[in-house]
Amino acid sequence: MRTNGFHDIFHKYFHGLQMADERYMNVPKILGKGEVRRWTSFSGMEIVFSNFQFCNNHHIQFASDAAMVELNFCFQGSGEVQVGHSSHELKPGNSYLYFMNDFDVLFEYEKEKPLYSLAIGIPVPLFNHFMLDYTDEGMLNFHALLGNHSFKKLQSPIDSLSANIISKMIDFPHQDRIYQLEIESKVLELLSIHFGRFLLKNRNEIKRRVLSKSDINKIKRAEEILVQRMELPPSLLELAQLVGLNDYKLKLGFKEVFGTSAFAYLREQRMERAMFLLRLGTNNVTETAVAVGYKNISHFSESFKKKYGINPSEILRMY
């Protein structure tokens, strides 16, 4: 079944979930459990929080003549997505920037695997408007970026700043138009961060004189390794060896690129990840501590309270 129009892409996706096309939707009990929250922003973006799992393997398939850009954050769970002839897996802890046009898509979800994610759909004219100042510096418009392909994907670990913005989106009181304005303002913050990270980073890196482009790429790879291996991270020396830098350059370079030391950054990532796990309610405090790399539960609780002003056990009682 083909669709026409940007918003119809989402309509067909919800149809595949057997949900009514509304702001708050529950997964039918015959399929599984969970909910989806959806907003259409004043500027025409689609904003979708998903938190569900299926009783059995489930797939959604459709085709569309429409085009769009999507920024997606996967916090928990996984899923397989096939667009045209390419296939990729949604992995927890990652953000994705998608470009798609005139495409066939197949979503495949495994039974009893929870998925918790945020998707932001951006109409192509709005994306091109955002990129208007940069079209002469590399043709950062939709069609130049996508070329003759139907799908393009960029990927990066979820950073602590984005995780904090999204947690505020979730916690903000649901008050109709005021809430919608707040949601849209937070979405624009996320787009600013990730368009800069994915599309404008080379322009920003020219300003850095201490590190070469190769060094910066290695430092960004070091950041990815730290986040991916937060449960059992390498030492600074091991990390330097993994990315091909000496530990001194990695130490100084990490602070220049990310504004803090490698392991201060890791602590922030651990706390943000812990907050999301606790809010989901699928792990107890001990399981959460272990999942983010703490062997000492008391130390984890102290660090958590120092950052958020509340004990992790209290978060469990709130959600």
Write the layout of secondary structure elements.
Blueprint: E1 2-3, H1 6-16, E2 24-26, E3 32-40, E4 46-54, E5 58-76, E6 79-83, E7 86-90, E8 94-109, E9 115-123, H2 124-130, H3 142-146, E10 151-157, H4 160-171, H5 176-199, H6 201-205, H7 213-228, H8 236-243, H9 247-258, H10 262-280, H11 285-291, H12 297-308, H13 312-318
Parallel strand pairs: 1-5
Antiparallel strand pairs: 2-3, 3-4, 4-9, 5-8, 5-9, 6-7, 6-8, 8-10
Helix pairs in contact: 4-5, 4-10, 7-8, 7-9, 10-13
Describe this structure in words.
- 45% of the residues lie in helices and 26% in strands.
- The chain is an alpha+beta fold and 319 residues long.
- It folds into two domains: 2-202, Sandwich (Jelly Rolls); 209-318, Arc Repressor Mutant, subunit A (Orthogonal Bundle), CATH 1.10.10.60.
- Strands 1, 2, 3, 4, 5, 6, 7, 8, 9 and 10 form a ten-stranded mixed sheet that branches.
- A hairpin with a 5-residue loop joins strand 2 and strand 3.
